[in-house]
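Bench log, entry 3. Co-assembly request; chain sequences pasted below exactly as received.
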Amino acid sequence: MRFGVVVFPGSNCEDDAYYAIRDGLSQPVDYVWHENRDISAYDCIILPGGFPHGDYLRAGAIARFSPVMGAVREFAARGGLVLGICNGFQVLLESGLLPGATLKNDSLQFRCMYVHLRVENTRSPFTMGLAPGQVMRIPIAHGEGNYYADEETIRELEDGGRVLFRYCDSEGKITAEANPNGSLGNIAGICNERGNVAGMMPHPERAYQAVLGSSDGLGILNSIVSFLGGR
Amino acid sequence: MNYKARITVSLKKSVVDPQGTVVKSALLTMGFGNVAGVRIGKHMEIDLADCESAAEAARMVDEMCRKLLANPVIEEYEFEVVDASNGEAAGQ
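Structure output for the full assembly:
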């Protein structure tokens, strides 16, 4: 199996993702420049965090027009695994590959901190190696991570079990205090109906070994390996 | 014909605007007690050259708004298209 980490002009978490896959998962991984239109060599595409194209207009609004996104769309339609992290999540939202949008954090502050996440669904390729209700410690770093979607969309996500992670306290309770950005339903990560495209604001790739402060993120990345290995 | 489009993109009424809320409280603190609400949006101006008509220019601007300038999940937009053939030329 082979991972591709997309690099847009302005990405700044591509190295984190690259090292987490190479050293944390011991899997082959390449950087994929955003002008690339052929990603057929890969089994999983990571859209990393950063400020692609300056995040002008809206986070991810311009990145969605990068040539690679056409390829990512086809890749996803064929069932390929796509994980958007932080800004990568926002690119997926702007592309329509995932529903909803992110607003400015309700605090109006850029939040760079560890948060706790509760695992809500362990049937997706990104969470199958985790335990239901498991609490993970993963960092966030964003100013616009306030997940929003209209009521009908939220209902579809909830009813379809498509909420993968929620912000919670250290005991797994979903509280307003544990919500770092105002996201509806404390939603931190979601997937599409088919389950092969996922996005999350927190950074699992920044938590792949204890020396970084947490190795909990490795569980998410390992799930991808288990899924692809068993396919 | 050259036209200028003036576009306002703002958060939908149903979406909480945290920036507007903070600015409102600042204005109240300053003593502007009549301030009942503040919404913050974006203003854009687009110069259009060599359009067939104002209707054609408006059709294009509407498409631009729908496809890029506004995110329909959270934002709404309005715009006006004015004749810019005399006076400031489009593109400058």
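Residues 3-229 of chain A form a domain with the Rossmann fold fold (CATH 3.40.50.880). The two ends of chain A are 11 Å apart (CA to CA).
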